[in-house]
């Protein structure tokens, strides 16, 4: 790819605030992270979103003639709109003109495009969307996957999620020996439905991961686990609920602290603490979710993503590229096949 800088293809037309917030976050990432960003979409709309006096020679815009709307059926739209911005962005990764792709648009379309254009990593049956949650221990996040790619999962899919999640936790999040848990309705080995009972046994027997047992709902944010696996139905419900709880708590703090003179003084004194609380709880601080299992680094953001979220997603994508997450996951499965 010529340049030694990490190159990120950005779906500039994806998301509720596209292209303005997408462009703003991407330009900040270019400046502060030292990455090259390829803004994919309608050149006129992208240029209109650029700050005044922007040097167009320093901004790489890749033309895409179409975009996929949030209400479109993802697979049909991806196949029908071959020149849609998400498809063009994925093609840049496939052609090795970019190291990673990010989109805050239709998550189903992003996943479908990644599977059709990039394909799955060898040894992986299903990709999984992994997202980082804060825990009660500062600086110790937990990676939960799958949070939406697969509504129904076979036990071997959950086992693969655990291996991929462990690699990401170790090499990107910096966890020395990631502790893996299986989301379930009880701690006992026999709890859960048939799929989770069988998955528990497979995880227990897998020497590639540090499986410590079932994780109940109350354990997710406890800091006792570094990786938690579940099917995409449960994971997506968990994700949306956690985001809502975080927003409720932040809103309560905003409403209650300023009450009266004492409250205003207290708010001023607590301002640095409140900022740190927001950083730990706000999903915007984590940027997006990694689509693990496809043959390319692909991050999916919230449809409501604004510039800070875009910046953080690009930061995470850069870290995944720098730490060779795909290569490390592949090597795990090569070793597994050789040992088998």
3D architecture notes:
There is one protein chain. The model has no long low-confidence stretch (mean pLDDT 87). Helix 1 (20-33) packs across helix 10 (307-322), helix 6 (155-171) packs across helix 7 and helix 6 crosses helix 11. Helices cover 46% and strands 16% of the residues. It has 340 residues and is an alpha/beta fold. The chain has an eleven-stranded mixed sheet, sandwiched between helices. Strand 1, helix 1 and strand 2 form a beta-alpha-beta unit. The relative contact order is 0.16. The protein is globular and about 60 Å long. It contains eleven helices and eleven strands. The chain has helices at residues 20-33, 43-49, 74-80, 85-94, 107-117, 155-171, 194-205, 232-256, 260-281, 307-322, 325-339, and strands at 7-11, 36-41, 60-63, 100-103, 128-133, 142-145, 179-183, 210-215, 227-229, 288-292, 297-301.
Summary?
The protein has 340 residues and is α/β, with parallel strands linked by helices. The protein has helices at residues 20-33, 43-49, 74-80, 85-94, 107-117, 155-171, 194-205, 232-256, 260-281, 307-322, 325-339; strands at 7-11, 36-41, 60-63, 100-103, 128-133, 142-145, 179-183, 210-215, 227-229, 288-292, 297-301.
Q: What's the average pLDDT?
A: 87
Q: What is the rounded distance between the termini?
A: 36 Å
User: In what order do the strands lie side by side in the largest sheet?
Assistant: 3-2-1-4-11-10-5-6-9-7-8
**Number of extended strands:** 11
H/E order of the elements? EHEHEHHEHEEHEHEEHHEEHH
Oligomeric state as shown: single chain
Structural class: alpha/beta
Task: State the major sheet.
Answer: 11 strands, mixed
Number of helices: 11
- Radius of gyration (CA) equals 21 Å
């Amino acid at each position: 790819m010529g340049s030694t800088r990490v190159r990120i293809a950005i779906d500039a037309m994806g998301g509720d605030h596209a292209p303005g917030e997408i462009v703003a976050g991407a330009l900040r990432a270019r400046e502060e992270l030292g990455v090259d960003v390829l803004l994919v979409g309608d050149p006129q709309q992208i240029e209109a979103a650029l700050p005044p006096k922007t040097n167009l020679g320093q901004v790489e815009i890749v033309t895409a003639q179409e975009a996929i709307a949030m209400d479109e059926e993802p697979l049909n739209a991806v196949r029908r709109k071959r020149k849609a911005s998400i498809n063009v962005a994925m093609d840049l990764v496939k052609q090795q003109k970019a190291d990673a792709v990010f989109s805050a648009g239709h998550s189903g379309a992003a996943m479908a495009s990644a599977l059709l254009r990039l394909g799955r990593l060898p040894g992986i049956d299903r990709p999984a969307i992994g997202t980082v949650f804060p825990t009660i221990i500062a600086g110790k996040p937990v990676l939960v996957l799958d949070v939406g790619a697969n509504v129904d999962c076979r036990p071997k899919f959950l086992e693969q999620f655990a291996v991929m999640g462990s690699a990401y936790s170790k090499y990107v999040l910096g966890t020395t020996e990631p502790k893996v848990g299986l989301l379930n309705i009880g701690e006992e080995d026999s709890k859960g439905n048939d799929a989770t009972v069988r998955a528990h046994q497979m995880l227990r027997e897998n020497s590639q991961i540090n499986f410590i047992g079932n994780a109940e709902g109350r354990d997710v944010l406890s800091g006792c686990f570094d990786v938690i696996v579940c099917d995409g139905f449960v994971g997506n419900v968990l994700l949306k609920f956690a985001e809502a709880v975080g927003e409720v708590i932040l809103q309560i703090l905003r409403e209650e602290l300023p009450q009266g003179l004492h409250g205003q003084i207290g708010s001023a004194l607590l301002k640095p603490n409140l900022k740190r609380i927001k950083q730990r709880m706000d999903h915007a601080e984590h940027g997006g979710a990694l689509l693990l299992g496809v043959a390319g680094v692909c991050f999916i953001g919230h449809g409501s993503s604004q510039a800070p979220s875009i910046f953080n997603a690009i930061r995470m994508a850069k870290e995944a590229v720098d730490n060779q997450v795909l290569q490390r996951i592949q090597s795990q499965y090569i070793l597994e096949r050789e040992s088998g």
